[in-house]
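cache lookup: miss for this entity combination. No prior model stored, computing from scratch. Input as submitted by user K.M.:
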Amino acid sequence: MLKNDPLEQWDRDTFLHPSTHWADFARGKAVHRIISSGEGSHIVDREGKRLLDAFAGLYCVNVGYGRTEIADAIAAQAKELAYYHSYVGHGTEASVTLAKMILDRAPDHMSRVYFGLGGSDANETNIKLIWYMNNILGRPEKKKIISRWRGYHGSGLMSGSLTGLAAFHNAFDLPLVPILHTEAPYYYRRPDVSMSEEAFSAYCASELEKMILKEGPETIAAFWGEPVLGTGGIVPPPKGYWAAIQEVLNKYDILLVADEVVTGFGRLGSMFGSEHYGMKPDIITIAKGLTSAYAPLSGSIVSKKVWAALEQGTDEMGPIGHGWTYSAHPIGAAAGVANLKLVDDLGLLENAATVGAHLRKAMSDAIGDHPNVGDIRGEGMLCAVELVSDRETRAGWDDQKPAVTAVARLLADGVIGRAMPHSDTIGFAPPLCLTKAEAEEVAEKTAKAIKGTFGS
Ligand code: PMP
């Protein structure tokens, strides 16, 4: 901490930080860190400490920090036209260009994009569009939504209800009706160790089908899922999972929403996770990687099938009663246009695939045999190391202390990882421009931090 830094006092006295122990923070007992600058995969804090950000902020700074192409595009847009709304048919050059660029990159069966500010509000929009659609189609009872335990879809009232993590429900009276949660496709934590990946996928699909039949298929509107579970522990799906789920959804005429807030625009080494896993979503939620977080912007990409119902809806009822002041904000849109160009120009999909695989291999080589490392997993530029107290039984701890301790040690050694909430897992989601040498540094220092945590 800098000596007599006025910012530290202002911070404690004025600022309510998200996902923070507020009382401890106000008392000066919690982490307090102010970040001043960034370049590539590194950030520099106010004390001048340079850190390798192996979580890309909150898995969002995909192109890395300090990209002048995006900064210049934002500045040019702010000077030319800082704001105009997108209500009643208005738009800006940047927002229209970005919509076209998104659709050019999205799966072929997608049709149009609605813009928001962040992932949470985009998921709120999606719920409204789905309810609107079923009202238009004359099936107003088809409104329930099924998401998964361990899913993360945001912090709003409805998006927080979709989220399947206790901390986002407890003390907020969530989840709200009509949101239900089914089995997480968490192969390492499968109920029976002898199950193959395919058998576990079939089990998850049959649990989903059971829930649909119990509730009544005519009442279930949609199923929500991240192609790879993110905040719930960075968990790629077992083999055959999405095909098995899709089959159940098709059977009961239930829409699939792919929440690609983390996986969209290259994190898995493919443009979209849907494409990566052969999913055919009716709506795709996008945010983070859309602008690499240079400005807040999100979107809901709707399929041709959903669009057909929405088109019919406004024909029958007039303009849609849904909008945010900052929908398609031109500064966010200008950032998005420059960012998507950079993702292409720098070949970041390819880099995410190759360097991400290199990171997981380096991690396995460095720490895979450790008695407290239960699982090393990931996909594209995602990597997770799950800690266990016993490799045989896969037992963890009542809290996630070892992961928290290891992440603190790692930070002291100059690398940012994340102790994932609700699991004993250290997560990594570096910028997609990470180099092989940086990946090796992350693995080597993680191994050191884990060994230090467990005493050997
Ligand atoms: N969906 C997913 C899959 C996410 O990971 C997140 C954020 N981590 C959100 C939705 C919510 O996005 P936001 O925080 O921008 O509201």
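stored under new cache key. The longest helix spans residues 348-367.
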